[in-house]
Amino acid sequence: MLRAFTVGYVTLSARSLLPVNLTLGVLLGVLLVAAAGVVYWFRLSPDSSADRPREIVIAGVRAAAQLATVSLVITWAVTNLAGLAAFLVVMFGVAVRTAGRRLTSNHTWWLTAAPIAAGVVPTVAALLLTGLVPVKGLVLIPISGILIGGALTVTVLAGRRALDELELRRGEVEAAMALGFLDRDARMEIARPVASDALLPGLDQTRTVGLVTLPGAFVGMLLGGASPMMAGAVQLFVLIALMAVQAIAVAVTVELIARRRLFRPVAQAA
Predict the structure, then answer these.
(1) Pair 117, 92: CB distance under 8 Å
(2) 50, 219, 245, 247: which is deepest, by most CB within 10 A?
(3) Which residues contact 195 (CB under 8 A, 6 or more apart)?
(4) What is the 3-state secondary structure (H, E, C) of 26-94?
């Protein structure tokens, strides 16, 4: 099934893709400026120290540079086992660093490796052991990228919400401990409900797939010539695997925060 996912992407005809020309470059530039302009005009930044318009522009430029680089190295990565391993390690390392930087500025940032790996590694291992996915870069890279990206997103969302809420409701934690709750349990009662909201985007995407949105795997396979049934099967796998990975990531993130393993410096703002 997942081999067809790869074939679908490989056999995409040039006519079904966006042309890489000056018009595309200009349009991308306009959209990037528009995004930054809206954020600036409506002041969509958490505080005066955060320059979100600048962050958006930098993110767009970085994305272009990174995709150009990936385009150059992807051939080596998908045809060489060492290249495949290196590529996956880099993907995971960047995800851990990104999540850690979003949650804290202290030495505990590296612990975000735990929630990301906890869901992704068993899922990818199960795919390999059952033979559904071959040990080939052309399959492993996109599948692993989707799962790592999903785990990264919910780790950041759950972690930020939990840490913010614990800071805001510190008095309730102390009151619960005065009533006999263990420190971990008192913090968990505050952190868990808000952290669970990180699962909502993935849940909503799964509930509305085919009705509101047609995700990338489905569209990619259709453009590649696969049948709607095959495209739907692959997309269903991606969505359900993502929900499993994200649920595990949120659970591990909340546990680390409740046990004070992953925390912010006292003076660090939310």
Answers:
(1) yes
(2) 245
(3) 158, 159, 161, 162, 250, 253, 254, 257
(4) HHHHHHHHHHHHHHHHCCCCCCCCCCHHHHHHHHHHHHHHHHHHHHHHHHHHHHCHHHHHHHHHHHHHH
Which amino acid is residue 147, in one-letter code? L
| 67-91 residues labelled b (16+ CB within 10 A) or e (exposed) | eeeeeeebeebbeeeebbeebbeeb
Q: How far apart are the first and last CA of the chain?
A: 44
Look at the pTM and tell me if it is higher than 0.90. no
Identify the CA nearest to 246 among candidates 151, 153, 156: 151
In angstroms, the CA 239 to CA 173 distance is: 36
Residue type, 232: G
| pLDDT at residue number 11 | 44
Q: What's the mean pLDDT in 69-88?
A: 83
Give CA angle at 160 (156, 161), nearest 5°. Answer: 120
pLDDT exceeding 90 applies to what percent of the chain? 61
Q: How far apart are alpha carbons 244 and 30 in whole angstroms?
A: 37
pLDDT digits (tens, 9 = 90+) for 240-252: 999 999 999 999 9
Cα angle 87, 91, 97 (rounded to 5 degrees) comes to 140
Q: Residues 124, 129, 130, CA angle at the centre, nearest 5°?
A: 100
Tell me which amino acid residue 116 is: I
pLDDT at 78 over 80: no
